[in-house]
Amino acid sequence: METAATFHSHPGKGAGAWHRLDLRNSANLQEVLDAVSPTAVINASSGGAEWAVTAEGGMRLAQVASQRGIKLVHVSSDAVFSGRREDLYDETCLPDPVTPYGAAKAAAETAVRLLSAGAVVARTSLIIGDGRSEHERMVHALAAGTRDGALFTDDVRCPVHVGDLAAALWELTLSDAAGVFHLAGPDAVTRHELGTLIAQRDGLDASLLPTGRRADSGLPGGLCVRLDSRVTQKGLATRLRGAREFLRRRNPDR
User: What stretch or stretches form a coiled coil here (predicted)?
Assistant: First the structure.
């Protein structure tokens, strides 16, 4: 299947056509869709807490996708949850965000589900790559002492590998699936545990990683947000690995 990608500031390095897109601009969105004529769109964009991008941009895309008969796969976040729930968050749980970013993501989710009955809302958690993710870069900087900060020991998430996430999103895109899906790994770890796993994999001294408690930091956000992806996983050929598996220490002999 032929694919195309969009960018806001700088095009990526992958093969294929790249189109500049600003989700705040209705005319620009229409121009890109006219040029590409897609049968499906994966919205993996994020404007952080900027409402015009993360909330209204997602709403605008959902409306246009519905009008044009385009299948929409909308990537959302575990930030739509407060973390007050003692149990895991499964696909039936309703958003109760406590941050501006979570509120924007939750608003976009609601619009997508209302405007496009055939759409997919795919919630995920911390996304880890092969050294290039924000979390991995932060661990290296903290270990090197080139960045201030701390890795929280009371902030729990269910990280997913970017390759697993991409494969699962593509699988959902090509299927007849619709509704809410959870795409997170099965391992619930604190941000400090995650940092330790990254450090061990990359041969860093994990004892150099500063620790702290989110509860003491004054930063908003849920403390324990554990996505339950078991129902989604049963319908996927793609296996969503846990952080303890995909961050195993690399074999130097390979």
Answer: none
Phi-psi region of 129 (alpha: psi -120 to 50; beta: other; left: phi over 0): beta
Alpha-carbon distance of 196 to 244, in angstroms, equals: 10
Give the type of residue at 47. G
Q: What is the pLDDT of residue 254?
A: 41
What lies within 8 Å, CB to CB, of 95 at 6+ separation is 80, 81, 102, 105, 106, 109, 110
Domain boundaries, the chain: 4-246
Low-confidence ranges of the chain (pLDDT < 50): 253-254
Contact in structure between 36 and 50 (CB atoms under 8 Å): no
Contact 54, 61 (CB under 8 A): no
> What pLDDT sits at residue 253?
47
- Beta sheet of 120-124, edge-to-edge order: 40-43, 71-77, 120-124, 179-183
3-state secondary structure of 74: strand
Residues β-bridged to residue 27:
none
